[in-house]
Amino acid sequence: EAKEAGRNTYKFYTAEMTQQALEHSFVQSALRDALEQSQFFVTYQPQLRIKDYSMVGVEALVRWQHPERGLIPPDSFIPIAENSGLIRELGAWILRTACEQGVQWLNEQVNFGRIYVNVSATQLHDESFTEAVIMCLKETGFPAEKLGLEVTESFIMKDPQHAINVLSSFKEIGIELAIDDFGTGYSSLSYLKQLPIDKLKIDQSFIRDIPDDPNDMAIAEAVIAMGKALNLEVIAEGVESQIQADFLLDKECTEVQGYLYAHPLTADAFSEWEKQRDIK
Ligand code: C2E
Ligand code: MG
Ligand code: MG
Ligand code: MG
């Protein structure tokens, strides 16, 4: 604390830091109310096969509609929910909401492929998480084969052997696994080979500046080649332009997700989108 460190340290507090501290404590205390007052909702962004635009799945992306502050993006509250531990409850709610939605879509014959849910390292480190996922599937009646989980590279590399165990337990029951934000962490290639994963998601920071940044293009190409060599699907996220899509097709990337195809959509908007497009 600045106060404890001494009289002169006050000058290190900038207006911006005060603002950040305020934001942080606002979010932290408001998160719990938000859960109780149902201020969260889940959007779904289509993921398509690059060759024929057929449905691979949808990524569940949480949104926070605050009554006074409006729509708050996940980057502003997920890290805080992780630090405070509230991600356990929030994550459980997101998973359940996605599974219930999936059951409804199955009943209505909406073709959504799989639903991919983001899970944070905090959730994955919980001893009871695997059991909670199994319970959720059982209670909602959503089939495990229709669920995918997106895990981050940083979770895997923190304790690779533990990650192999946790991920294997999901794989065994038929849940698909993808490594999110791939390329931003430090995955060791030897672990990558041992992990029971199905898919690599190239981080959007490597897609954004295609075709202007040759380094990003080289990285994207290398990830695609590595996925191919390891027999993994590779999905590019954040695809916004046809030039990027053409590049990815040329390098034999298998799947795409991005504003070029569809934004994250509410459940109703997704089923409309899916019914109206002519590619199935
Ligand atoms: P992510 O899992 O890597 O999700 C992809 C992000 O890219 C999403 O941002 C999505 O809306 C955005 N995106 C998709 N296509 C495009 C595009 O063409 N251009 C651009 N500029 N962006 C695109 P979003 O929804 O704001 O989520 C940000 C991050 O927050 C996610 O990154 C994920 O790390 C976290 N997050 C979101 N929902 C959840 C959740 O339910 N649980 C957890 N644990 N984390 C979540
Ligand atoms: Mg994701
Ligand atoms: Mg990602
Ligand atoms: Mg990301």
UniProtKB/TrEMBL annotation:
<feature type="domain" description="EAL">
    <location>
        <begin position="24"/>
        <end position="278"/>
    </location>
</feature>
<protein>
    <recommendedName>
        <fullName>cyclic-guanylate-specific phosphodiesterase</fullName>
    </recommendedName>
</protein>
